[in-house]
Amino acid sequence: YNSGNFTLEANFYVESGKGAYFNLQETFVVGGVWAIDCFMLDDGTLKLSNSSTPYLTTVYPTGQWFNLRLEIDLTANVWELFLDNVSQGSFSNPTGSIGILDLYPTNPTSEGGNNQSGFYVDDVSYDHIPASLPPVNGGVTFVNAISGILGQSLDVSGTVRNLGSDPITSFDIEYEYNGVPVAESVGPITLASLATYDHTFSTPVTLVAGANPLSITISNVNGAGPDADASDDMKTITVDDPVVPGAGKLVIGEEGTGTWCGWCPRGAVAMEEMATKYDGFWQGIAVHNADPMAVADYDAGLGALISGYPSAIVDRGADIDPSAMEIDFLQRIVIDPMATMSTGANFNATTGVLDVSLTVDWASSTSGSYKIACVLVEDGVTGTGSGYAQSNYYSFSSNDIPLVGAGLDWQAAANPVPASLMVYDHVARAICPGFDGHAGFPGSISASDQHVFNFEFTLDASWDDTKMHIVGLLIDPSGRIDNGSTSSVADAVAAGFTAGDIVSCGAPTVINGVSSIRTLEIFPNPARTNVTLKIGLEESNNVIVDVFDISGKIVASQAYDQLEGTHFLDMDISGFASGMYTVNVQAGEFITTRSLVVE
């Protein structure tokens, strides 16, 4: 359903000290796009959210039966929640379609729960009344949320929908913020009945202090003055009080991704959005897994902190979906770091040797085991081999889910996207000395202390130093990133290299997938209950076998000590749901993958 009035109703009983959860999904494709998440936490908090963005928060009665009802005007995009027939508020949703109800026992700590879930549900019902449309009526159905940093200039955008039966050919549109209106005209266009039009104003908004309303209004539809229903012409949001960044703070986002991962395009889109919106305050690093761009140590370190692909961590915090990185960023950017870092370098273009200096200037006194690491990141990475083709479950030929960004319309693209069309940004090329960093600081540090560390990298001939950034990571005793730094190679060379303590880096290692694994076969394939992996190894290595489902979650994992030569490894898959899986086999530093179909 994507128009008309939809009502969902059910009675819930959530056990005391536990939580409950359900979601509505956009289409009949399971695991595609969520329309709404409903988290009922153990403390009595109920949250309605979409892609980790909360839209309504209230309280519900625990340890007793209560009635929950959602009344949704899908035409005008108004969602209203009722508990025991009392309205808890309404909101607009960026996803305006409903296909699936999914009930699931979860109460995650990432949402404020305690990981204990227990609930009953009864009397589930739904109703739908088709829309009745006047001839000419346009409405604003959604205003994209705006949040950011004080003084930032940000785009204002919203969605206009034809809520009439006649086509819309033109309209006027205006936004107002901080008492300043900005008006524009749209047309000629042809907007069919119930079709939507996404509009971004050419004049951005500059964020001012305080939580202030921003409204978007449509008028003069088809040049005919007022339309049939003035009540849907305007939508208003509250622009949150802009954050004031910590002095010298740069937030680091590390994303787990891979060309084999069909859902990973949304991670690329999220990374690009963050880089564009928060330039100068954010540095993203795409840590590849099981493809030609993977770096063994970085891949292993990040992989230990995430549960599947794509996933992300911000300043090495909680494992989150990449779409939620902005929320964590806004929490971290306001924190004053203990120190700032500046970058210098020498670069020999003939030998490819890049000498880097990171100078750490401490703003506060502290103690404990702080560490430092240096990362090389490259934009504009391309390749010709099949390993550079990006698996794409958003494709029209797969799940047919809208996704635009990072240079592609992923829904219109093939699955996989051919290597010739792929350009990868923020790609981690090397990390020194490793994921955990170098423990080179004294146990006690005073404000105004300065420490300088030197790192040496040898750039691969295929890397483009003009598209690379040198990223510094200052890691606190808890393992979180206290602060980051970023500089282009050219800017670092211009700043000049400073001699300091030498950190041993070694040669950067790129996982090419086959250097240590001679053969990998899976049979039978397709399979129902059991499969055998035939693995041929050139040398003795510890072997890890991971199986990922279509959503990128690890559903099985097995480690084997010191295998060499040819081995036949049996795997029980009787508990696997039917579908497509990816089998990753890692031998030492090298990884290769195969697809597995379970019937």
Quick tags:
599 residues, mainly beta, Immunoglobulin-like, 41 strands, globular, 4 helices, Jelly Rolls
The CATH architecture term of the largest domain is Sandwich
Oligomer: single chain
* Mean model confidence by pLDDT: 93
Sheet of most strands: 5 strands, antiparallel
Strand arrangement within the widest β-sheet reads 8-7-6-1-10
The number of distinct helices, counting runs of at least 4 residues, comes to 4
The CATH homologous superfamily of the largest domain is named Immunoglobulins
Which consecutive residue ranges, at least 5 long each, have pLDDT under 50?
507-515
Radius of gyration: 26 Å
Helix proportion: under 10%
What is the CATH topology descriptor of the largest domain? Immunoglobulin-like
The assigned structural class equals mainly beta
Structural shape? globular
- Please give the CATH class of the largest domain: Mainly Beta
Strand percent estimate:
over 45%
Strand count? 41
Describe what you observe in this structure.
The strands form 12 sheets. This protein has a 5-stranded antiparallel β-sheet, with no helix packed on it. Residues 507-515 have low confidence and may be disordered. The chain has 599 residues and is mainly β. Helix content is 6%, strand content 46%.
Write the layout of secondary structure elements.
Layout lengths: L4 E10 L5 E6 L8 E7 L4 E6 L2 E7 L5 E9 L4 E6 L2 E6 L8 E4 L15 E11 L8 E6 L9 E2 L2 E6 L8 E7 L2 E7 L9 E5 L4 E2 L5 E8 L14 E6 L11 E7 L7 H13 L4 E7 L5 E2 H8 L7 E4 L10 H8 L6 E10 L4 E10 L3 E2 L3 E8 L25 E2 L2 E2 L17 E6 L11 E2 L4 E9 L9 E8 L5 E8 H7 L5 E2 L7 E2 L5 E7 L6 E19 L5 E19 L6 E9 L2 E9 L1
Parallel strand pairs: 20-21, 32-35
Antiparallel strand pairs: 1-6, 1-10, 2-3, 2-9, 3-4, 4-5, 6-7, 7-8, 11-13, 12-17, 13-16, 14-15, 14-18, 18-19, 20-23, 22-36, 24-25, 25-32, 26-31, 27-30, 27-33, 28-29, 33-34, 37-38, 38-39, 38-40, 40-41
